[in-house]
Amino acid sequence: MKKKSANAILLHDNFFPIHQINSMNCKEIFVVESPIDPSFRIARIWDFVQPQIVNYTSKKFNIKPIYISQNEIAELSNHSIITNRLKVGLWKDSIYPQIQSLQNNSSIHFITPSIDKISWPLCKGGYFKLKVSIPKIINKLIGQVELVF
Q1: How far, in Å, CA of 16 to CA of 39, rounded?
Q2: Which of 61, 81, 105, 120 has the highest count of CB atoms within 10 angstroms of its CB?
Q3: Residue 86: which of 116, 66, 130, 61 has the closest Cα?
Q4: Are 16 and 57 in contact (CB under 8 A)?
Q5: Average confidence score pLDDT of the chain
């Protein structure tokens, strides 16, 4: 069995909370290329945002990113991976089997964005309960989230 390499980042969507990772012995950054039809709005957003996220992450850790397809995710089973949780929708439907396989066969750590940690407890009871709780979420976020453009 191969020895697991030091931490690697897997960027699979536009929601990786890079600001939550300050000290990490990151050796590799893997970027999953989107196989989603470019006519879908989510694919166009990904194509716009992803290069910015990759560039920022690459500079932060001084590592050149490695681009992979969804089918190559399973080949990362000899790495210790840090990534964010899958979101709902088309992208999750598309990538879930590969992430699940990786989770079953390697060391993977999911990080949860701060905004999700704050909003999840308020989501119990459905969308309406979340909707009326938005002011509470915003008040908790003030000073906790830094938007970088």
Answers
A1: 24
A2: 81
A3: 116
A4: yes
A5: 78
Q: What would the pLDDT profile of 73-101 be if each residue is shown by its tens digit? A: 888 888 888 888 887 666 677 788 888 88
- 61's CB contacts (< 8 A; 6+ apart) are 9, 24, 26, 29
Residue 99, classified by CB atoms within 10 Å of its CB into exposed (0-12), middle (13-18) or buried (19+), is: buried
Query: What is the rounded end-to-end Cα distance, in angstroms, of the chain?
Result: 43
Report the C-alpha gap between 54 and 58 in whole angstroms.
6
pLDDT at 118 over 80: no
In terms of C-beta density within 10 A (0-12 exposed, 13-18 middle, 19 or more buried), how is residue 87 classed? middle
pLDDT band at 145 (very low <50, low <70, confident <90, very high): low
Do residues 20 and 41 touch, judged by C-beta distance below 8 A? no
What CATH class is the domain 5-112? alpha beta
